[in-house]
Amino acid sequence: MRAKDLELYEQDQLNDKLNLKGKKMNKLKTVDIKGKKYVTVNERIKYFREHFTGYSLTSEITHINDSGVIIKAELRDPEGNILATGIGHEKQGSSFINKTSFIENCETSAWGRCLGNFGIGIDESVASADEVANAIKNQS
């Protein structure tokens, strides 16, 4: 098999796997926020861990200072290829949780965005329930 044919074959296999998994994804729990259903990050992570054995989800702090943090998450296949990324940004003290746990909250946001970009839990939105709820809180 030529390298290009092998690459197309591997992409077709991944697409088949994602399409098969997508049929089962309607079982993910959602939260209703202002009439729209959102999947929580923990549901996306559980689905990922259950259906994508050997894949990895990693995160890295790309920027941090006294006022906030930016974290980048990456989803890789078993061969180490990056299949999706996600960025999270949180300001220290911007919410009750961010008074003590803004870094952890940011990592969760980055993971949720990354898994959404990969296609997990995005029937109605890439944004997670956690992300939307936080945005609404910060608007008030």
Task: Characterise this structure.
The chain is 46% helix and 26% strand. It has 140 residues and is of the alpha+beta class. It has a single domain, classed as Enolase-like, domain 1 (2-Layer Sandwich), CATH 3.30.390. The chain has a three-stranded antiparallel β-sheet with strand order 3-4-5. The radius of gyration is 17 Å and the shape is flat. The termini are far apart.
Compact overview of the structure:
The protein has 4 helices and 5 strands; from the N terminus they run H-E-E-H-E-E-E-H-H.
Reconstruct the topology from this structure.
Layout: H1 3-24, E1 30-33, E2 36-39, H2 41-51, E3 56-64, E4 68-76, E5 82-91, H3 98-118, H4 129-139
Antiparallel strand pairs: 1-2, 3-4, 4-5
The chain-level structural class is alpha+beta
The tally of beta strands, per DSSP, is: 5
Name the poorly predicted regions. none
Radius of gyration: 17 Å
For the biggest β-sheet, the strand order reads 3-4-5
Looking at the structure, what is the overall shape?
flat
CATH architecture: 2-Layer Sandwich
The number of helical segments is 4
As for the number of domains, it is 1
> Kindly, what is the distance between the CA atoms of the first and last residues, rounded to a whole number of angstroms?
58 Å
Round the mean pLDDT to the nearest integer and report it.
81
Question: Regarding CATH, which class?
Answer: Alpha Beta
Which sequence of SSEs, written as H and E, runs from N to C? HEEHEEEHH
Q: Indicate the proportion of strand residues.
A: 25-35%
Biggest β-sheet strands, sense, barrel: 3 strands, antiparallel
CATH topology-level name? Enolase-like, domain 1
